[in-house]
Amino acid sequence: MAGLKLQHIVKRFGQIEVIHGISLQIEDGEFVVFVGPSGCGKSTMLRIIAGLEEATEGEVWIGGRQVNDVDPANRGVAMVFQTYALYPHMSVEENMGFGLRMAKRPRHEIKERVARAAEILQLTPYLKRRPKELSGGQRQRVAIGRAIVREPEVFLFDEPLSNLDAELRVQMRIELSKLHSELQTTMIYVTHDQVEAMTLADTIVVLNEGRIEQIGVPLDLYQHPANLFVAGFIGAPRMNFLKVRAEHSTEKSVVIAGPDFPSRPLSLKKTTSVDLAPGAELTLGLRPEHIKVCEPGSGASMLLIEVVENLGDLTLVHGTTPAGNRITLNVKGFQNYRHADAVGFGFDANHAHLFDSAGSVV
Ligand SMILES: Nc1ncnc2c1ncn2[C@@H]1O[C@H](COP(=O)(O)OP(=O)(O)OP(=O)(O)O)[C@@H](O)[C@H]1O
Ligand SMILES: [Mg+2]
After folding, report:
1. Beta carbon of 18 within 6 Å of any ligand 1 atom
2. pLDDT tens for residues 263-278?
3. Cα dihedral across residues 289, 219, 205, 159: positive or negative
């Protein structure tokens, strides 16, 4: 088992810089998820840690040892990829033990380690089968088994579930959580799926265009996003953003107004150096569950309903305000709203997020 330290990692492919100086400390036994949109540098970061790609600048430390010049095979890491290329002509057992056979481990040791991994992954009944005789989820478990038998100090997962159907993904997510509880090994997991990030991670690292936007425990990122990017990326359906203006402000609060609602005060999350002078443009962020439907009229903001999605225990309502703001809100239970209904809505100022023109929370 080992922790990890990345110090000012920069990666350039030719002239193009794709990682712009990432520093990060990962504790021994932690489950860390790198999440971010396609192309933000998640796989590149993982490959740099694995040694499959060289960092242009910066240091990679695994378990107190700088490994920049250490071969991938000797870094104590095992990586599981999205495409879990198994050898089709080998049995599950042979696939899982392949790396150990290459490393010339004694036969009884290979057998023992494969049997233990198979037990953890509930693959024991399938050890003699070939990959084509397995379901997608079972094949992915074999790929994970191949990593487990190496008894790495750090597991690296690059979107290992994205080829599975939705139901299997949920199942495998639970399996991976259990696996981590059982092994207590440091895991770094890459995904662009914020639900996977929220459910699996001890710590989430949100990446965007080769930079870290925010690091935190899932709930903290959800409740206290540091900027517009994280606020929009974490949470589904995503946070609603409305353009508003500052009317006047004190050190601790600002009165905002928008075309869809009358002036109201909001407390500021941090003391800001940003100009909140009257007229300053701000973005108000409201999560769908923090917008309440009420009777129209009497000063309430208006929403013209466009689409209603009844999910049984929850109803998602999508609509547009008279000022053209698009809003999604959710209401508990089955709701009888229809297309073209007009409703009123309000929000609780305690759950409102406010961002300055640079996108930072204020
Ligand atoms: N070998 C390479 N040569 C040149 N550019 C590369 C190379 N590998 C990756 N890149 C670029 O680096 C950036 C980050 O790529 P990376 O594969 O790390 O993204 P990602 O976050 O894993 O995306 P995805 O979610 O699509 O897998 C992209 O802009 C990509 O085009
Ligand atoms: Mg990738």
Report:
1. yes
2. 889 988 876 656 688 8
3. negative
30 and 138 share a domain? yes
Using alpha carbons, select from 31, 75, 84, 55 the residue that is nearest to residue 190: 31
CATH no. for residue 313? 2.40.50.140
Q: Looking at residue 207, which CATH number applies to its domain? A: 3.40.50.300
How many angstroms separate the CA atoms of 306 and 311, rounded? Answer: 16
Q: Tens digit of pLDDT for each residue in 37-93?
A: 999 999 999 999 999 999 999 999 999 999 999 999 999 999 999 887 899 999 999
Please indicate, yes or no, whether residues 37 and 180 belong to a single structural domain of this protein. yes
Q: What's the CA gap between 102 and 177, in Å, rounded? A: 29
For the CA of 190, the closest atom of ligand 1 is 22
Separation of 248 CA from ligand 2 center, angstroms? 45
Q: Is 321 touching ligand 1 by the criterion CB < 6 Å? A: no
Say if residue 225 is in the same domain as residue 273. no
For residue 159, the ligand 1 atom closest to its alpha carbon is 27
Read off the pLDDT of each residue in 172-189 and give the average, rounded to a whole number. Answer: 93
Domain hosting 52: range is 4-230
In this structure, the answer to whether residues 11 and 103 fall within a common structural domain is: yes
131 in Cβ contact with 95 (< 8 Å)? yes
Query: What local confidence, expressed as pLDDT, does residue 213 receive?
Result: 98
